Amino acid sequence: MINTKSTLAAAVLFALASNAFASDVVINELSVRDHLYPAQFKAELQNNLNFFRDGVGVDPVAKVPFDTVSIVEGKVKPHYYVNTTEIGLYLNILVEAEKAGEGKALTRIAEVLDVLEETPTWKGLYFWPYDIVEGKLKPTSDGIVPAVDNANLALALAGVAGAYLDETDAEKQKIVERVEAILVGQKQGWFEIYDQGRGLLHAGWSTKNDAALPYYIDRKANESRLAPLWAALITKEAGDKAIPQSAFDNMELYTHKYTFNGKEYNPMLTWDGAYFQAMLPAIWLNEQELMPDYTMVKDMTFLQMTYAAKHNIPLVSSSATVDDAYAAFGVPFLSESKVKFNNEIHEGTTGTPHALALSYIVSPETSVQALKALKNYYPQIESEFGWYDAVDSQGKMSTKILSLDQGMFVGAFLADEINADVEKYLTARGYMADVQQMYRSYVPNNG
């Protein structure tokens, strides 16, 4: 006769032990496969990858990155909030660590999905930012639901699912199923923020005002461009009610001719002249293949390099300031806001290492050489927890490290792998042809 009481007790103890084991996973180191480390930049890339250790850039209880950490007397002081773009980049980094044989990374991916499944949302879409409170993510009173961060997370999740789509391992297949459940559960939110009258996507929703945010995603050379693209893909099966691809096509794009040393360039203009606005989506999509003419991105990168060289700084992008505030820094002659409308922008001579790392997507050798030169010129840029977020032309530095910028720094070196995983997922779901079609409209409105 089976003792059901003993059997039940054993089952409960086993479950408790399993849960304890899962929660006891601690990630003290992360590495990726050897071919992803540039020969002359392995130690430096590893240093920045080391940011994503528990208790450094990642909350070991909440299992997500801290948005910002300060380094105070050689110790990490975390700031307890996060946004979902940062979580997405962290997931992509974990996938590459798992591919390198780090078994804990797969457990952590599942734990991060636990967090996402438990976190409060609006019609499936996530808020910005979240406070980290006792290991849980809590929306702030502002009630902002951003299109940009939700799209970035969606593409990052597509990369996670793409990595494991053909795996027979049950744990990896479960990850794919959980990712798809999150993505499908967001459809209604995407429908709500599309404006049929304007033919554009709102920048998001305010639950505080119970209304769409009053501004639109209307520029292609902006970090938000993946939002209308993803909205069209995920609602595709709704037929006539689907968000149309024209929400992406209708966004505007501008270049502006510029002469340097007697040679003419025609760089793409981002709104603020910030480099990440042009490059963040390329961590997930191979835009060099998708854009009809990638020369405008190459020209923009070259001119960013000339500006940086003139001021002895890295490339210019939104970042911390050297007095530990935050600013949307940009290069004036690469800013649509400045060039077309003569608006004031943050054009100070402060640069950020993550922008220089992002240029690896465009020109790997030049990027590595410039990063090495930056470290040689300002050796104090490197802390034991990663590179500080900003340095100005006088050599003054921020004491902050931002997980978004660290995610972009590391993600740039992993972009080929992430691109392939995202494309695998998009192809399997019948989306890739639509992506290619939308990017055919990625041409300047000024001819």
Automatic annotation (TrEMBL):
Keywords associated with the record: Signal
Pfam families: Glycoamylase
Biological source species: Vibrio ponticus
Signal sequence extent: 1-22
Protein name (record): Glycoamylase-like domain-containing protein
Domain named Glycoamylase-like: residues: 219-410
